[in-house]
Amino acid sequence: MQPKFSVIIPVKPGGEVRALAGLSRVTYPADLFEVLVAYGCQPSVQRNTAAREAKGEILYFLDDDSAVAPDFLDRAAAHYREQNVAAVGGPSLTPATDSPLQRAIGIAFSSAVGGGGVRNRYRKFGAARYSSDSELILCNLSFRREIFLAHEGLDERLYPNEENELMDRLQQEGHLLVHDPELAVQRSQRRTYRAYVRQMYGYGRGRGEQTLIAGKLKPITLAPSLFLVYALLVPLLIPLLGVSALPLLVYLAIVVLASMQGSLAGKDAALFPRLLLVYPTLHLVYGAGVIRGLISPRYRGGKQTHWDVEVRRVKPLGEAVQRSTFNVNGNPPISDGHPGGAAPK
């Protein structure tokens, strides 16, 4: 028997939900999936609120710009036939139509030099497999609703990294997570360098905050931060202590080689100078974010804001898929001004 899905998409008030275009073409039986759009300013709260309103057995989280394949629900449903599977997801791929800067960011994320152990979140590689949070990403990720709610959903103190914290808990309890490379979405990278810097700083800060909440530190988490400190101190330490600049020179050589390789793979010379900037930004800004998250986590910053969340069911279970189905502004909310979850723990 095929499971019922609740597709949940968080979006800022007044934002465009481009993901609906792909959802209008899915091949999964129309009576077995619904689509909920959650408006608000705190994605983890939005997702939790919509999850409580959902009627499906499986919660499938997308971002507002996640472009899905028509058979994505069919593929996900096949993995949930195994009862021990708690979460299923796939990679987020950069469209070939993106600008050179956006494609450079996507190449860096999907490379060993840039993405490292999490690069499979951004590329198709291998076959479907049991995995961990290192290969799964919240813009394309599903959970069994019963398990999700039993664990109180996403930790609302976190954004980003809220899904990583939950998946860590699930794996510790023996639940299985599945990464399916063919279960991919297309998502554009940040359009400007400034937005990319903010993204990497936020990723790093979220990882630092998650580390504090989990109470355990993975050594690899500190590698970018330690390199940042080293890079800043090298000019001072060389004349004082004779500290070698060789590691920095080796790093720069690796960046140049990785940039050349990425440019050749992308068949675009315009990628090379952008990759020369994107790689160091990824490492150094991420490292700065980790330090900030460890030293000054946002959830310890005093009074937390209680965001209101408005959830709209733009396609109910049992309703045929039509263009009019996804008229977001034309459908009444199922929950007006719903308080955005409980206060942060």
Topology (elements, then pairings):
Blueprint: E1 5-11, H1 19-23, E2 33-39, H2 43-53, E3 58-62, H3 72-79, E4 85-89, E5 92-93, H4 100-109, E6 129-130, E7 140-144, H5 145-150, H6 162-172, E8 176-179, E9 185-186, H7 193-214, H8 219-241, H9 246-266, H10 271-295, E10 308-315, E11 335-339
Parallel strand pairs: 1-2, 1-3, 4-8, 5-9
Antiparallel strand pairs: 2-10, 3-7, 4-7, 6-8, 10-11
Describe the protein's architecture and organization.
This protein has 345 residues and is α/β, with parallel strands linked by helices. The protein folds into 2 domains: 5-90 and 136-189 and 305-339, Spore Coat Polysaccharide Biosynthesis Protein SpsA, Chain A (Alpha-Beta Complex); 193-300, no CATH class. 41% of the residues lie in helices and 15% in strands. It contains 10 helices and 11 strands. The strands form 2 sheets. Strands 6-8-4-7-3-1-2-10-11 form a 9-stranded mixed sheet, sandwiched between helices. A two-stranded parallel sheet has the order 5-9. The chain is globular, with a radius of gyration of 21 Å.
In summary, what is this structure?
This protein is α/β, with parallel strands linked by helices and 345 residues long. Helices cover 41% and strands 15% of the residues.
Radius of gyration: 21 Å
Q: CATH architecture of the largest domain, please?
A: Alpha-Beta Complex
User: Strand pairing plus helix content: what structural class?
Assistant: alpha/beta
Mean of pLDDT: 91
- Number of DSSP helices? 10
Q: How many strand elements?
A: 11
Region (Disordered): 325-345
Keywords: Membrane, Transferase, Transmembrane, Transmembrane helix
Pfam families: Glyco_trans_2_3
GO molecular function, one term: transferase activity
